[in-house]
Amino acid sequence: MAELRKIPASEVAFHSSKKDCWLVIDGKVYDVTEFLEDHPGGEEVLVYASGTGDATQSFEDVGHSSTARSMMSSYLIGVLDGYDADAQAALKNKSAASRGREASRANLDQGWESFTLVDFLLPLLILAVAVVSWYMLTFKSPPSED
Ligand code: HEM
């Protein structure tokens, strides 16, 4: 396969309209102008994502199918100049890890919020019933037969 053209971000920035729309996804540059009308998610989102300079996150957030991913190669026109795939992967892993931490912290907070009075009283009630039963059985023995 021929080496892909290296396209500077400044050039990509010129192509973010309905008549001329390029997208950067994972450091690759796609010319989706012809695809705008056919995109199942609508053309507006593509033009908007194009204007942000990097559509990777929005593309991934949608959870595109493998069919969508295999379509991409027909629109590939080059790679983003200066794109560091390793640095981006590290960044992605880092943010995924911190998102995980945030989520578990949120769960913890939510756990405390949903702790109601019943959660306190029920164990106390069970303990009280147990103590009273033990007391009755131990000290209040039934009257003897004789
Ligand atoms: C070359 C790039 C892209 C291609 C080839 C593509 C292709 C597709 C395809 C085939 C679908 C139908 C559902 C599926 O098969 O997953 C779809 C849906 C969609 N896409 Fe894209 N897409 C691209 C980029 C983007 C970007 C950058 C965004 C976000 C800004 C986006 C947003 C959406 C949305 C919102 C849907 C609708 C999802 C739904 O209603 O279930 N797409 N796309």
From TrEMBL:
SMART domains: Cyt-b5
Keywords of this entry: Heme, Iron, Membrane, Metal-binding, Transmembrane, Transmembrane helix
rRNA processing as UniProt keyword: no
One annotated GO molecular function: metal ion binding
InterPro entries to which the protein is assigned, alphabetical: Cyt_B5-like_heme/steroid-bd (IPR001199), Cyt_B5-like_heme/steroid_sf (IPR036400), Cyt_B5_heme-BS (IPR018506), Cytochrome_b5 (IPR050668)
Compartment(s) where it occurs, according to its Swiss-Prot or TrEMBL record: Membrane
Pfam hit, one: Cyt-b5
Membrane in keyword set: yes
Parts of the chain that traverse the membrane: 115-137
Family, per entry: Belongs to the cytochrome b5 family.
Name of the protein in its database record: Cytochrome b5 heme-binding domain-containing protein
UniProt source species: Spirodela intermedia (Intermediate duckweed)
